[in-house]
Design goal:
The chain has helices at about 15-25, 30-45, 55-65, 140-150, 170-180, 200-210, 225-230, 230-235, 240-245, 270-280, 305-315, and strands spanning about 10, 65-70, 75-80, 85-90, 95-105, 105-110, 115, 130-135, 155-160, 190-195, 215, 255-260, 285-290, 320-325. The chain is α/β, with parallel strands linked by helices. It has two domains: about 10-70, DNA polymerase, domain 1 (Orthogonal Bundle), CATH 1.10.150.530; about 75-330, Alpha-Beta Barrel (TIM Barrel). The strands form three sheets. A ten-stranded mixed beta sheet has the order 3-4-5-6-9-10-11-12-13-14, covered by helices on one side. Strands 1-2 form a two-stranded parallel ribbon. Strand 4 (about 85-90) and strand 5 form a beta hairpin. The mean pLDDT is about 95. The structure holds iron/sulfur cluster.
Length: about 350
């Protein structure tokens, strides 16, 4: 009886080098085909198998029947007065995510999303208002870099956009493998940073499988306050988080970066700065103090410059390397905590 089967093609943009080697070995090909195609996809930016001239003619003819190479599309770009750019990516199922590019004189940082929305509900974050829709695939995560690498100077990548990367662990790790792979993007482990709200068991797993840099969204010096502004703290309280941070890097010279957003009258008092000093005792770290960027529906304000400076001085006096970060891209809602997309889903 005649019948039609539409076979779903495998998107090779979802595969890191190990996956590609397995894929070609299963096809009866030599493992080096995996490395060849990795270079075509991520270095040459070629998605048409017919143009991959060092593959055999038979393989070029065979691949399109079972495989494809698809990345998300950019559907909108906004440029801030300070040069920060925000890109809206359209995913195949109609969902959308945002990516931010921050140019500086000596570097260009791409802030990449890992989920559509986020389930964690941090009170200072616009993404939280979307709720959680789904995890991004490897192609959707690394695709943000793939699309923009040809038009921007990208020296650093931070997984600090929409979503909690450690709750999309396998796809994020595979995407970071590609970022670090010399046959793909070749970024150094010091220039790829994963930022987490503190999913402790996943941090312990990550240190075993990836050498990327680590940032932790801290934002409060005690459990009582952190429970209120970051509900994830009820599951992984500060003591557990600090222990995970203390032992995170195997190389004792590497440091965890803590992000601390300065909320007027909430977490910015001198007493809270002293609590923070105590909390961080014994953790090799630096702190980024961030000015708060408001978003519709949020009543909090950023701390004043005086309060921010007094807070910083207490940390510095205690010997903690503390940087006050400039706000970038707030006029196009591209600053930290402002990413909410045009809409959660089209
Ligand atoms: S700050 Fe990060 S973890 Fe918290 S809600 Fe926003 S995206 Fe999620």
């Amino acid at each position: 009886m005649p019948y039609n089967i539409t076979m779903k093609k495998i998107n090779l943009a979802n595969y890191n080098k190990a996956d590609l080697i397995d894929f070609f070995t299963d096809l009866g090909e030599k493992p080096f085909r995996g490395t060849q195609i990795l270079k075509w996809i991520h270095q040459q930016r070629v998605t048409d198998f017919a143009a991959m001239t060092n593959l055999s003619a038979a393989l070029r003819e065979k691949l399109p029947h079972s495989a494809e190479i698809i990345f998300p599309e950019i559907v909108k770009e906004q440029v801030s007065q300070d040069g920060t750019r925000k890109f809206l990516f359209q995913l195949q199922d109609g969902n959308q995510v945002e990516t931010v590019y921050i140019p500086e004189p000596d570097r260009g940082t791409l802030c990449v999303s890992s989920q559509v929305g986020c389930a964690l509900g941090c009170k200072f974050c616009a993404t939280a208002t979307l709720g959680f829709t789904r995890n991004l695939t490897v192609a959707e995560i690394v695709g943000q870099l793939w699309r923009l690498k040809s038009k921007l100077l990208i020296t650093n990548v931070v997984l600090m956009g929409m979503g909690e990367p450690l709750l999309n662990f396998d796809n994020v790790v595979a995407a970071m493998d590609l970022m670090l792979d010399d046959n793909a993007y070749g970024l150094s482990k010091y220039r790829v940073t994963l930022s987490t709200s503190g999913i402790v068991p996943k941090m312990q797993l990550l240190r075993e499988v990836s050498e990327v840099s680590l940032a932790v969204s801290l934002h409060a010096p005690n459990d009582e306050l952190r429970n209120k502004i970051m509900p994830v703290n009820k599951k992984y309280p500060l003591q557990e988080l600090m222990t995970a941070c203390k032992y995170y890097f195997k190389d004792p010279r590497r440091m965890v970066t803590f992000e601390y957003v300065m909320l007027a009258g909430v977490n910015d008092s001198k007493e809270q700065a002293r609590q923070l000093v105590k909390l961080l005792q014994g953790v090799r770290c630096k702190i980024n103090l961030l000015r708060f960027n408001s978003f519709p529906g949020c009543n909090w304000q950023s701390s004043s410059e005086e309060v921010l400076d007094a807070f910083r001085q207490i940390l510095l006096k205690a010997g903690i390397n503390t940087i006050t970060r400039k706000t970038r891209g707030s006029d196009i809602a591209a600053a930290c905590g402002q990413l909410a997309g045009e809409k959660g889903k089209s």
